[in-house]
Amino acid sequence: MASTLTAIVLTAVLTSETDTLMAQRASVPPTVRILDTTVVHRVKARYQIYLPPGYPSGKRWPLVLFLHGAGERGSDFAALSHTGLTQLAAGRAFPFILVAPQVPAEEIWSIPALAALLDRVTTDFRVDPDRVYLTGLSMGAFGGWDLATSYPDRFAAVVLISGGGNPVSACRLRDVPVWLVHGRKDDVIPVEESELLARALQGCGGSVRLTVYPEAGHDAWSQTYEDPEFLNWLLAQQRKPPRR
User: Fold this and answer.
1) In this structure, what is the dihedral angle of CA atoms 114, 182, 156, 111, given to the nearest 10 degrees?
2) Global pTM?
3) Using CA atoms, how far apart are residues 111 and 45, in angstroms rounded to an integer?
4) Are 211 and 190 in contact (CB under 8 A)?
5) Residue 215 pLDDT > 60
C-alpha cells in the first residue's frame, strides 16, 4: 500500500512539474525571422538552335523555345530529331529562331537553367523580346508550365501539349495567351490534367484555349505541330504589359 501511495505522489509531482514547464514555454512568444539572401549555383544546358533563312537581315526575329518529353532525354541530339518541332525543323524552314535544349538522362527540366538559357540566347542572337514563345510536350509541357508561371513576363504565348501542372500558380499566366492540347484517350497523362489547368486559367480571367482530340492518345503533338493553325496562332501573339 505504501509503495502504491509513493507512486501516486511521484506521478503527481512529475505531472505538476511538466505542467509548469509547458506553461513557461507557452508564455514565450515565437521569434519571427526572415531569410533574405542570394543563392548562386552553376547551371549547364545542352541545346540546339535553328536559325531562319535570311538571318539576321537587320531585323529582330521571333523565338520559340521547344521542350521535349521524357523519351528524348540523354546526350545524343539525334533523339531530338524524332519528335516535335525539331523533327519538323529537319525538313522545313521556320520563320523564327528555334531553341531546343536537351535534358540529361534521368533528369527533369531545370527552371533556373532554362531561364539562364533564355538570357543567353536573347543576348547572343537578334531576338524580338515581344515575340518569345514557349511550347512543350509531355514532360516538356510540365516543365513549360513551371517555367511560364515562374517567368510569365517573358513570353508572348504558351502552347503545352499532353501535360499538366500545378493549378495554384495559374493566375500568374492570366496575361499570357495559353493553348492547352490533349488527347482524350491519353493513357499516360490523363486529359483531366489539361482540363484542370484550363478551368484554373478561366477562373483568373486568363486567355486560354483548350483543344482535346477525341481519338488521340498521348501523342497529341504530331497533329498539333503539323496543323498550320498552330504557327498562325502562335506567331500572331505579342507580349502585352501585365494588368494592374
Assistant:
1) -20
2) 0.85
3) 11
4) no
5) yes
